[in-house]
Structures are given as structure tokens and as C-alpha cells.
Target: Protein-tyrosine phosphatase
Amino acid sequence: MIRILTICTGNVCRSPMAERLLQQKLDQVRPGVFDVRSAGIQALVNSPMDTRAAGLLHVLGGSSEGFTATQLQESHLADVDLVLAMSIEHRDRILNLMPRLLKRTFTVRELARMIDALEADPDAEIPGGTSDEEVEYRWKRLPHLAALKRYQARAADQNEDEIVDPYRRDDSVYQQMVKDLVPALDKLVAFEARITPDLR
Model:
């Protein structure tokens, strides 16, 4: 099982949308292999997903049913394979809390760019195969391979690493959140979907 944790501030808008969409999309490609959760560094504990964010999630085909906000604890990071932060601040907070996660913690947009750079590198040795074991091995290696592209894939503008926080803001900001987030998630899923069976 590959354990992915998405992180934002209140855990009611950005990270739950990332959690629910990414879980749904990965299940369509490799069912039963990924476990996506979310938490907030200042979570509105036990709150449901923000109403407008939930509405957009439903439009995208996801569901907010049963969701409640969770405060980030060190225990959430103990056995995680990949941490996807919604902002640079969140990424840095995770690394201050647990520095050993340096090569497993990225903003979601940052990782999407790194995967682009990784796939464009003809010398990159990306593990193949589609069995559960091969998928798990690939995603346990992926953060380390992607981290090698951290500087090559660095954004010209730090805003390119951010998912805008829409909480209690205009509807247009919620729409911007979707525009920032969904293409990055789709790149992660498309990367996995392109992997073919190992025919050796």
C-alpha cells in the first residue's frame, strides 16, 4: 500500500479536495494500491468539508461524504510514502517537524513539474510494471527520483508552487483553486496510467 498525505491549513478546502480526487483517480488506474489521506497544520478539527469546496468537488465527480477535518500529528507522518503540500509554507512546516521526509515532501504542483522533467529524461530509470508489488516499488522510488529534478524543475515564480487558499473568499478564488490543483493531480495520475505491464 502506498500512503499519500495531502496537507493544507484548515483541512476543509484544498487538502480534502486533493485527497478525494487523487484517491478516486488512482483507484481508477490501480485499484486498491493507494491510500490517500489529508490533514491540516491548523485544522478546523471535526469540521465537514467547506461547502463551496465540496460543491466543486462534486462537480468534478468526487464526494465529500463522511469527511471531517483532522489535525496533523507526527503519527500521520510516521509511515507515509509521499507528502503533498498545498503551499511552500506547508511543505516547510512538514520538513521542520520531520526533516527525514525531505525527499518525500513536495508541493503538489512542484512534484507535477518534477515528474514532467523525470519523464523527459531518457536516462531516468523509472521502475515499470503494473502488479501491486511493482506499483508499490515504483511509488516508493518515485519521490527520490523526482527529488533529483528539484532544481531543474524549479519554478520561475514561487506562486507556481502554490494552491491558492479560497477559504472565506470570493467564488473566483475557489475556481482558481481548482485550476491550480486539478492539472497537477492529473499529471500524477497520468504518469501512473502510462506505465505498461512488464513483459519480461
